[in-house]
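Weekly sync, protein design subgroup
Attendees: M.S., D.O., the rotation student, P.L. (late)

Item 1: inverse folding check
M.S. brought a backbone from last month's batch and wanted to see whether the design step gives back something sensible before we order anything. D.O. pointed out we never logged the input encoding, so this time it goes straight into the notes. Structure tokens as presented (353 positions):
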């Protein structure tokens, strides 16, 4: 049979309609890649094997399953799409065997989600820009369990860790994925304690000699002080990475945004002078050098900053709020007559008297 020689070797296996590819099918490319998809139609031959692929659109949300051929078909992602990016709810299957099920925004894990790791560990909780951020729990394959706060993909803040083999619990402050201060206690679980293997040596009865009891003076105060010191030391780091939605309630953010827009006067940025005026209206009076330092800290830059957006303003406000509350607590400890530090809700109420 005479005819023009094909320059490409595409193959398609699947459903057809009126001599067009339509429905479920697998497109095989010259380099060996395979693409599995549901199509509405493929138009045009025009003398050559050329096709225009159209996705099935439903309420501007795209659904597709993408698989690549490397010796076998492997599922990569199934779920909702928008503008050729993962958006909405979906499941992603990583090459290393990990699997994420949850919400996506702009092609990154965002919001509630669960990661099942290839080694058997499972994380369930909050995600922000593809990293574990917010409240979440990690259950390890051996039964150990962490539940608490995460910042920038690491355990950071208040959290508890349960050691299954020891039947012990650590509750306290975590820094950079490690416990910094807290309370380590035995879990009252007789069934579990009975399963813990006993030492075979030193089986003779043990008699406790008379030893003076040692107790830490004001143990609760020492622990509370240690944990507060950790929070104070990590405040700048946490303010840089914690999502602003986790710092304040939606109502508080609405009030902050309203105040910011009034100061911005139609712009999306405010300058340093407007920021200072905005903070003074909230009865917070930082020095110019302190504002500049906080802005640079939140933006993670040493360069000169002339424009501050809403998110940076919120982070600066959170740091100043924390500093004011710490100062009030110190003053109250020195003088019991001093009023207790106000919480964030009371501060935000000053925005709308």
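Designed sequence read out in the meeting:
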């Amino acid at each position: 049979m005479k005819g023009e020689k094909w320059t490409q070797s595409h193959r398609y296996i699947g459903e057809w309609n009126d001599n067009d590819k339509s429905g479920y099918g697998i497109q095989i490319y010259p380099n060996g890649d395979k693409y599995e998809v549901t199509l509405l139609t493929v138009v045009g031959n025009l003398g050559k094997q050329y096709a225009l692929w159209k996705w099935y659109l439903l309420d501007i949300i795209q659904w597709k399953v993408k698989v690549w051929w490397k010796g076998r078909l492997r599922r990569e992602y199934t779920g909702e799409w928008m503008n050729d990016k993962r958006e909405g709810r979906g499941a992603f299957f990583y090459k290393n065997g990990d699997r994420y099920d949850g919400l996506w925004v702009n092609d990154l894990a965002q919001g509630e989600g669960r990661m099942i790791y290839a080694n058997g560990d499972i994380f369930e909780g909050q995600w922000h820009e593809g990293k574990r951020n917010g409240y979440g729990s990690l259950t390890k394959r051996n039964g150990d369990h962490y539940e608490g706060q995460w910042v920038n993909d690491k355990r950071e803040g208040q959290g508890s860790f349960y050691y299954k083999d020891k039947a012990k619990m650590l509750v306290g402050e975590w820094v950079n994925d490690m416990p910094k201060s807290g309370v380590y206690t035995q879990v009252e679980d007789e069934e579990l304690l009975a399963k813990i293997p006993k030492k075979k040596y030193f089986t003779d009865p043990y008699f406790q000699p008379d030893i003076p009891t040692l107790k830490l003076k004001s143990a609760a105060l020492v622990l509370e002080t240690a944990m507060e010191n950790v929070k104070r030391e990590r405040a700048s780091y946490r303010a840089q990475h914690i999502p602003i939605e986790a710092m304040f309630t939606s109502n508080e953010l609405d009030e902050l945004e309203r105040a910011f827009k009034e100061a911005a006067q139609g712009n999306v940025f405010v300058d340093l002078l407007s920021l200072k005026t905005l903070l003074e209206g909230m009865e917070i009076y930082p020095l110019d050098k302190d504002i500049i330092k906080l802005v640079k800290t939140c933006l993670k830059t040493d360069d000169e900053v002339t424009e501050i957006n809403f998110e940076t303003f919120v982070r600066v406000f959170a740091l100043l709020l924390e500093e004011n509350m710490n100062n009030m607590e110190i003053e109250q400890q020195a003088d019991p007559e001093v009023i207790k530090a106000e919480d964030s809700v009371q501060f935000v109420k000053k925005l709308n008297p």
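Discussion: The helical segments are 190-195, 219-241, 244-247, 250-264, 272-280, 288-299, 310-334, 344-349. Residues 1-7, 40-71, 338-345, 347-353 have pLDDT under 50 and may be disordered.
Action: P.L. to compare against the previous round before Friday.
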